[in-house]
Specification:
This protein is mostly helical and about 325 residues long. The protein has a domain of about 200 residues. The protein contains 17 helices and two strands. Helix 3 runs parallel beside helix 5 and helix 7 runs antiparallel to helix 10.
């Protein structure tokens, strides 16, 4: 991350923390919480899907395990915050099991495997009514002493900041270079001594931990969850679309993607009502077609080309004197 990017990121997060001082509408703060929540989830997914190039469509499993971990462990008398971290541990264990199996596959087979595992987790939650409540759902404790959306908003900003700093550090570390090498050519990375299975698994464990924290915050805000709400394929797809739209494999991409996607979804819902999903889908398709590298990736490439352009190509043309023009015309004749 360059010096300018650091200043921009620091300024963005400082302004984000100041938002509750000027915004007092619970509705607006809830939308902003959702923006930051999916920015954090997108940054978490980006470690696996963006930097490592492994298209995971099963992150709803870790989101749901984090949510249900908080709900179920609190029911047996464990304090909510301790339940949250134990739920994160369960999500990491789940990711280790899923990763050990699914990372044996590549390409679309890996993506299908992650979908299958997420569906298994969802169906298990649906068919254990005595434990999870099944389709009826279960209550979730409040993480904060007062039911204030401001507390959840601040927690969303903190989670995004944690995921952003962690991603920035990984991006510049040897571990990050290993991830990018796997994305570009996994066989070549293996031939030069990179333990690709271990590197991919560690990226998934980190991603699952961040996703589980997001799931717990989401569940605590709404105080009630059902499997089809927090473990659905729709949730996995939305988590993946955020960094794809903003720019997979970039630091700022998931944040940009979440701002655009969640804001557009809310605006279209209010303006177009029942037709908002159609408009929303058309917008996403157009961005994917015309900006295949995402918003941040496209902007970065344009800036890179601008910097590489020779100075002469950007300079204004030198005016030709009248006598020189006359000489050229005479020469042509």
């Amino acid at each position: 991350m360059s010096h300018r990017q650091f200043i921009a990121a620091a300024g963005f997060f400082l302004l984000s923390f100041a938002v509750p001082l000027v915004v007092h509408s619970d509705y607006t703060l809830q939308i902003l919480f959702r923006v930051f929540l999916f920015a954090a989830l997108g940054l978490a997914w980006n470690l696996v899907g963006g930097y490592a190039g492994q298209l995971s469509l099963g992150h709803a499993a870790y989101f749901g395990v984090g949510a249900y971990g908080l709900a179920l462990l609190s029911k047996v008398g464990i304090p909510p915050w301790l339940s949250l971290f134990l739920g994160v541990g369960l999500a990491v264990i789940s990711a280790a099991i899923i990763g050990l199996v699914s990372f044996r596959l590549r390409g679309p087979y890996f993506a299908l495997c992650t979908i299958a595992f997420a569906e298994v987790v969802r169906l298990v939650a649906k068919n254990l009514p005595d434990v999870t409540g099944g389709d009826v759902g279960t209550q979730v404790p409040l993480l904060f002493t007062e039911s204030s959306i401001k507390s959840f908003y601040i927690s969303g900003v903190l989670l995004t900041g944690l995921a952003f700093v962690l991603t920035a550090w990984i991006e510049r570390s040897k571990f990050g270079y290993y991830l990018m090498a796997i994305r570009e050519d996994e066989d070549t990375a293996m031939s030069v001594g990179v333990n690709t299975s271990r590197v991919k698994l560690w990226s998934l464990l980190i991603s699952a931990a961040l996703t589980a924290i997001g799931g717990a915050l989401y569940a605590s805000l709404f105080l009630f969850i059902v499997p089809d709400q927090v473990m659905s394929l729709d949730m996995s797809v939305e988590i993946a679309i955020v960094p794809m739209l903003g720019g997979a494999g970039t630091l700022f991409g998931p944040v940009i993607g979440s701002i655009v996607l969640e804001t557009a979804a809310e605006i279209f819902k209010n303006i177009f009502q029942e037709a908002h999903l159609l408009i929303y889908g058309v917008l996403v398709v157009m961005v994917v077609i015309f900006l295949p590298e995402g918003i941040a990736g496209t902007i970065a490439n344009k800036l890179r080309l601008f910097k590489k352009a020779p100075a002469g190509s950007l300079a204004a043309p030198v005016p030709v004197r009248p006598e020189e023009e006359a000489e050229r015309t005479a020469f042509r004749k």
